[in-house]
Specification:
alpha/beta, Rossmann fold, 22 strands, about 400 residues, eight-stranded mixed beta sheet
Length: about 400
């Protein structure tokens, strides 16, 4: 299950050279479990056909303001009223003007007027059209009405020039849709800090001490917290993952940098989810130049890095919900229980990284959650089966939200 499962999405497609990308977006939304109703503007039908979207959705595609739905209700009213979210991709300058001025002269404009669901727009157009004061004024009007804008981005345009106006990556559009759906979620109005990835502790300008963390679990947690309505700050070590859309992103390299960034971001936050695999030690000295191979043994003196979760507890106490991770080998219960109490955490999520499908770099994880409880004999324990990391993240964020709620009663 994910943020789009069972959701009613109205996808408005406008006339643009980027219209063909809307078919890929439609396919992705359907694969993620959404029920998609497509509206094509008159101009869009010059670029793509209703048959394409009908094949992808197995549903009626709407094009005319006077059309009726299969139950004979008026499409221009019912589509908007039944929608959980309306996404317009690509959104042209003409459609932005229609929406900003409240026109009701085509089916898509009427649907937006009729809906009470969040609206996401993904503009795409010529750079001069985008920069024109009229377009910028229309965007400002729509933003003031809480319409969610995704892009555009700078890049190669159809005219053979490079500039602002290219449609945002579809992953960002989907991220915006997910965020819009969760704006009233369990963490709405809360600030959540998530750490992710490993840290690199330099030996010299070329080499470092690090670990195998891919950052996938932390990035999934940041997206899940965003989807639950939170204002998310993601503090990330070096990874090879795209930045999640709709989160404040802080890039760090070392454990000391992560500690500083995490403590700063946690001021005023409701929860910290510490999923980063922080290096426990760093070299005492760092060479200014690349160390040359000599053939002799190389001895490196290491010193402990700061314990970030313990530092957060020392500064904020229980005013901040703290979720830690324990990536262990073999028996995890004893170490997870120790960390739960030693670090002042409310929840420790532990996994055995030697298990198949539960280690660094995998797309799945098998986590056991250890929570503070009233039983003096030990923590409350919940064993999760092996699940995709985005599903694990959703469950951890739901548990975190419950802890935030209970602490603020």
């Amino acid at each position: 299950m994910n943020a789009l499962t069972g959701k009613r999405v109205v996808l408005g497609v406008c006339g643009s050279i980027a219209s063909f990308k809307a078919a890929q977006l439609c396919s992705s939304l359907v694969q993620l479990g959404a029920e998609v109703d497509v509206i094509l503007t008159e101009s869009a039908r010059e670029f793509v056909t209703p048959l394409t979207f009908q094949a992808l959705t197995r549903r009626t595609v709407y094009t005319d303001i006077h059309e009726a739905m299969p139950d004979l209700s008026s499409a221009h009213v019912e589509l908007g009223m039944r929608a959980d979210v309306v996404v317009i991709c690509p959104a042209t300058a003409t459609t932005l003007s229609r929406l900003a001025h409240g026109f009701a002269d085509d089916l898509l404009a009427c649907t937006v007027l009729a809906t009470r669901a969040p609206v996401v727009i993904a503009p795409a157009m010529n750079v001069n059209m985008w920069n024109h004061p009229a377009t910028q004024a229309n965007i400002a009007t729509l933003t003031a009405r809480r319409v969610c804008q995704v892009g555009p981005v700078a890049g190669y345009l159809a005219e053979g020039i490079t500039g602002m106006g290219r449609l945002s990556p579809l992953e960002d559009v989907i991220g915006a849709v997910r965020q819009a759906l969760g704006r009233n979620g369990a963490l709405a109005g809360r600030c959540v800090v998530v750490t992710a990835g490993g840290t690199h502790e330099p030996l010299d300008p070329v080499r470092f001490v690090g670990n195998r963390s891919s950052g996938k679990m932390g990035y999934a947690l940041a997206e899940a917290a965003r989807d639950a309505g939170a204002d998310v700050t993601l503090v990330s070590g070096p990874v090879s993952l795209p930045q999640p859309w709709g989160v404040t992103f802080v890039q760090v390299g070392t454990a000391s940098q992560m500690a500083d960034a995490t403590l700063a971001a946690s001021e005023g936050a409701a929860a910290l989810i510490m999923a980063a695999a922080v290096a426990d030690y760093r070299p005492v000295s760092v060479a200014d130049q690349k160390m040359k191979r000599s053939g002799d043994a190389l001895r490196i003196e290491l010193t402990p890095n700061p314990d970030i979760l313990a530092s957060v507890t020392s500064r904020f106490g229980d005013a901040l919900v703290k979720v830690g991770f324990a990536a262990e080998t073999g028996e995890v219960t004893a170490e997870a229980t120790r960390k739960l109490h030693a670090k002042g955490a409310h929840l420790i999520c532990a996994n055995d990284v030697t298990e198949a499908g539960s280690g660094f770099g995998t797309d799945t994880n098998r986590v056991t959650m250890f929570a503070r409880g009233g039983d003096p004999t030990g923590p409350e324990v919940e064993h999760l089966p092996t699940l995709p990391k985005d599903e694990v993240a959703r469950l951890i964020v739901a548990r975190t939200a419950a802890l935030v709620t209970s602490l603020r009663r």
